[in-house]
Amino acid sequence: MNIYIVANGKITLNLLKNIKKNSYIIGVDRGALILIIHNIIPDMAIGDFDSVKKDEFQIIKKRVKNIVKFDSRKDKTDLELAVEYSLKKKPDELDILGATGTRIDPFSRHLF
Residue 84 — φ and ψ, nearest 5°? Predict the structure, then answer.
């Protein structure tokens, strides 16, 4: 199984076109909304959803069947939680799109 994790970084339509058919797709926080906007319904949305407005979260809730919501007071980033979940599924391939997000401080945590 191939898993694609889509985070809240810069995501282009061309990048999304590279997602292989029959892959399991996880939208991380605002990444779930980005997928929906591009007519891709993720299999799962995960995060604390602090990057979306209440009305945007309602859109995610209406479109995504499997949502795992965490409290914003946590020791791990939303992306870390998505990767941990993905690895439990033992994927053949795991691709992360938009991992750098819009701020460097949370991204730098993933480098070490």
Answer: -60, -45
Report the pLDDT value the prediction gives residue 102, as an integer from 0 to 100: 60
Domain boundaries, position 57? 2-101
pTM here?
0.88
Tokens 């991992």, located at residue: 99
CB atoms within 10 A of CB 84: 11
The total domain count for the chain is 1
67 found inside a domain: yes
